Amino acid sequence: MSDDDAWVADDIYETIESIDSDGVKFAVRLENVSRRYSLGKREIDALKNINLGIGMGEFVAITGASGSGKTTLLNIIGAIDYATEGRVFVMDVPIGDYDESFRATFRLANTGFIFQSYNLISTLTALENVMFPMQLTDKSLDEIQEDSLQLLERVWLAERTDHLPWQLSSGEQQRVAIARAMANDPPIILADEPTANLDSESAKMVRDLLQLLHQSGKAVIAMTHDSAIVRTKGARHLTMADGVLSSNV
Ligand code: ADP
Ligand code: MG
């Protein structure tokens, strides 16, 4: 990135928010992406030359054995990790070209993460966990609170707003995490084995919520072993094996 393009910190949110999603064709585009981890003298090629385009509003389910590179791929799309080769575009923005401060704000505005083990902040209530990602917006505290309450209603947790994570069941914690992922109304939802730790009833609720998010126009990318997620209406199924991505035909 040249100096001319340098971002002024205060303007980052405004600039990122103003990305015009109307003109964006791909929610995610990867060109020849590889990720190599170095552990001492050992090198692991977690991702090998991945090419992938995910359209706006598309539902993509990716399956693959443990260790095949699913989490690595998701973390790179979510700007948590970076590619060692190739280019990553999210909402047409080449996120690898920017520094960590831009990437942090960019992912808050554009991606909602749902993890296998929920990753809620243990000292915050359900409501506060949902409010947390909204801090960088220009909304007032009242608005943030009101919006967060509505999100908890949408995941059927209106009665649990003041509960701390340990006072919630696994399924309820995951639904708080889904509400949190929706906090800034991002165009892309990234889910890493979202139903793996849940009982069948809670897993169904999570699948229904992912489907609702898809129907509301969001691109949903789910790494999963759950065949019912793979069967989601309209979903594209891809498979990972040893760092290589292929379409499942
Ligand atoms: P999956 O999510 O499909 O189980 P991962 O993406 O977690 O697979 O891991 C892919 C490969 O990369 C594995 O061999 C794993 O051990 C390795 N790996 C993942 N993260 C790191 C890391 N931070 N440092 C070194 N190796 C890693
Ligand atoms: Mg994983």
Question: What would you say this structure looks like, in words?
Answer:
- By secondary structure, the protein is of the alpha/beta class.
- It has a single domain (3-247), classed as Rossmann fold.
- It is built from eight helices and ten strands.
- It has helices at 12-17, 70-77, 100-110, 126-131, 141-154, 170-181, 200-215, 227-230, and strands at 26-39, 42-55, 59-64, 85-90, 93-94, 111-114, 188-192, 219-223, 236-241, 244-247.
- The strands form two sheets. It has a six-stranded mixed beta sheet with strand order 6-7-8-3-9-10, sandwiched between helices. Strands 2-1-4-5 form a four-stranded antiparallel beta sheet, covered by helices on one side.
- A hairpin with a 2-residue loop joins strand 1 (26-39) and strand 2 (42-55).
- Helix 5 crosses helix 6 and helix 6 packs parallel to helix 7.
- The protein is globular, with a radius of gyration of 18 Å.
- Bound molecules: adenosine-5'-diphosphate and magnesium ion.
- Adenosine-5'-diphosphate is lined by residues 37, 39, 44, 46, 64, 66-72.
- Residues 70-71, 192 line the site of magnesium ion (MG).
Question: What are the key terms here?
Answer:
alpha/beta; 4-stranded antiparallel β-sheet; 10 strands; 27% strand; disordered N terminus; binds adenosine-5'-diphosphate; binds magnesium ion
